[in-house]
């Protein structure tokens, strides 16, 4: 089932036509590489699929409620938080549930409020567990470590991170948000070999959908199962990885 469909997209920046008559679809679980020479409009197409740019003509249809995450080139996580504080904002709903559970536990210790508190506590605890409430901090540490942030760096203020570190932090938060569809523009930029291999493994076991632009052919060969090639203003679709 398609979660996103683009029909006869065209984009022009007067007087130049970037691409035209581009049609494509994305199904749940797809792993797609968007490839082409520099200047062919790959980033522009990603932004149109996301809704950040308007096509000159054509339409994009997204599944109702589709959650899309986007890593642009040069993405940077900014703010006054530490790295860990910022990553934890992804889990604010879980943290609110956690606080509520602790409050109910105190109520259950009070004889006058125990029965009512217990009735609320049990279903809330079950929901909290189903949503990953007992594992989200370990999950966050796993992603941060994979992208090159050991525990001793988690309390560093975002303002003190380098440009490359801010991009990796942005990617970490994006992965932890776990959108239905990830649009990644050069995700291996600012990653060393170890982090690239970790990201490869993460994407290969992730249940969502990915469309990515990358110049790292080895990375694409090991992560995608379909290729969109943008060349001479048109889009060709191939099954298989980048080399095959």
Quick synopsis:
The protein has 244 residues and is of the alpha/beta class. It is built from 8 helices and 9 strands.
Choose one word for the global shape: elongated
What is the CATH topology descriptor of the largest domain?
Rossmann fold
Largest sheet: number of strands, sense, barrel closure = 6 strands, mixed
User: What's the β-strand tally?
Assistant: 9
Assembly level: single chain
Radius of gyration from CA coordinates: 21 Å
What is the share of helical residues? 25-40%
> N-to-C terminal Cα separation, in Å?
24 Å
Q: What is the count of DSSP helices, taking H or I runs of 4+ residues?
A: 8
* Count of distinct structural domains: 2
Series of secondary-structure elements, N-terminal to C-terminal = EEEHEEHHHHHEHEHEE
- By CATH, the superfamily of the largest domain comes out as P-loop containing nucleotide triphosphate hydrolases
Structural class: alpha/beta
* Order of adjacent strands in the largest pleated sheet: 5-6-7-3-8-9
CATH class of the largest domain: Alpha Beta
Low-confidence stretches: none
Notes on the structure:
This protein folds into 2 domains: 2-75 and 178-239, 3-Layer(aba) Sandwich (Rossmann fold), CATH 3.40.50.300; 78-160, no CATH class. It is of the alpha/beta class and 244 residues long. The radius of gyration is 21 Å and the shape is elongated. Helices cover 38% and strands 25% of the residues.
